[in-house]
Specification:
Layout: H1 3-16, H2 19-26, H3 30-44, E1 49-51, E2 56-58, H4 60-87, E3 92-98, H5 100-117, E4 121-127, E5 141-146, E6 154-167, H6 169-175, E7 189-192, E8 200-204, E9 210-214, E10 217-221, H7 224-232, E11 237-241, H8 242-250, E12 255-256, E13 265-272, H9 280-292
Parallel strand pairs: 3-4, 3-5, 7-10, 7-11
Antiparallel strand pairs: 1-2, 5-13, 6-11, 6-12, 6-13, 8-9
Helix pairs in contact: 1-2, 1-3, 1-4, 2-3
Length: 299
């Protein structure tokens, strides 16, 4: 059995947490993956994985061997990337992480175009609103929305987005329209679970004074789409990015509030680990995303 295939199978099992998912990732059968890992353990004379009916875990020897295997496989991928740099044509596999709502609404329509431009590149896109560890989770790039990117990574800004305070006309008719940020504390509020300031919302008045409002949410959700849906159903005031609510505002389904106050502005960034020896496939993706968001539709 080819040692390279054995290493690929072993790493895929660890990365995906099961033989079945590893087989799906490598487009082969579970039996083939099991055989490759078992043959490698027999050849090495060491058990690499603890197997139970519920989960897999690495032995101490398996952890060490996994790190060495990933180093070797990554080295091979880097060598292929160097060759692609010489040929001037991107090739290889890219793993990308992105937030759920932004990933569906504004990134999903772009992937097909990118792949058409680069036929030797393959992609895996994972959508999650949690902050992934690029190194530990094995991602080439993450799209993140934040005030400032994490200082330990490299970031290219794709676009900006402003948080918009809004509510449905029917809700405002029943409960009144807030005139001052502190009025929000008396209203039903729809809160996004992952908002970094939790339930404290920040506003800046025309004179530059910052107002921090402690809200009392009636409804929490870890999905921006769900928060906006609740607002559209007249359940309260919501604060969400303009890329998510611009259609509802344009159509009059939601009304923007406190126009004299500035809300938080966030950057949308393509984040990656290092500029050093940046593979052509990744460089091409970053440049493609920067070009694609030159004129964001929500502005």
């Amino acid at each position: 059995m080819d040692k390279f295939q054995e290493m690929q199978a072993f790493v895929a099992v660890v990365d995906n947490g099961s033989f079945v998912r590893a087989a799906d990732a490598l487009n082969t059968s579970k039996a083939a993956i099991s055989r490759q890992v078992a043959d490698m353990e027999q050849r090495l004379g060491i058990r690499l994985l603890n197997r139970t009916t519920r989960k897999l875990s690495l032995t101490d020897e398996g952890q060490l061997f996994y790190l060495r295997c990933t180093d070797l496989l990554n080295g091979l991928e880097e060598a292929e990337s160097e060759l692609s740099l010489r040929s001037g044509e991107p090739s290889g596999h890219l793993r990308v992480s992105a937030p759920v709502t932004f990933g569906i609404s504004h990134l999903a329509p772009l992937w097909g175009k990118f792949l058409q431009q680069h036929p030797k590149v393959s992609m895996e896109v994972s959508l999650s609103d949690r902050t992934v560890d690029l190194v530990e989770d094995g991602y080439d790039l993450a799209v993140r929305i934040s005030r400032t990117p994490h200082p330990t990574f490299i970031a290219r800004k794709l676009a900006s987005t402003k948080m918009v305070l809004c509510a449905s006309p029917a809700y405002l008719k029943r409960h009144g329209t807030p005139k001052h940020p502190q009025d929000i504390s008396e209203h039903n509020v729809i809160s996004y679970t992952y908002w970094t300031s939790k339930d404290e919302w920040e506003f800046t008045d025309p004179g530059g004074k910052v107002e921090v409002v402690k809200t009392r949410p009636r409804f929490h959700a870890n999905s921006g789409d769900t928060c906006v849906a609740a607002a559209l159903q007249d359940q309260g005031i919501v604060m969400q990015p303009d890329f998510l609510v611009y259609d509802a505002l344009r159509e009059g389904k939601l009304k923007s509030l406190l126009p004299g106050y500035q809300t938080v502005e966030l950057g949308i960034y393509a984040v990656y680990t290092s500029r050093r020896q940046l593979p052509l496939k990744l460089r091409s993706l970053i440049d493609f995303l920067v070009d694609s968001f030159g004129k964001p539709v929500w502005t």
